[in-house]
Amino acid sequence: MDRVCLLFLYFFIYSVLGWICETAYCSIGKRQFVNRGFLNGPLCPVYGFGALAVIWLLRPVYEYPILVFVAGAVVTSVLEYLTGYLLEKLFGLKLWDYSKRPFHIRGRICLRNSLLFGLLSLLLVEFLHPVLHALLQKIPPWLLDAAAVVLFVLLLVDLAVTVCTVLQISGKLGQIGQVLEELNERNAASLQQIGKRFNESMDALKEHQKERQAEAKERIDQLNARLSELFTQKRMQRRIFKAFPNMQSKKHQETLDRFKELANQKREKKRKKKS
Question: Residue 105 has what DSSP assignment?
Answer without folding.
Answer: E
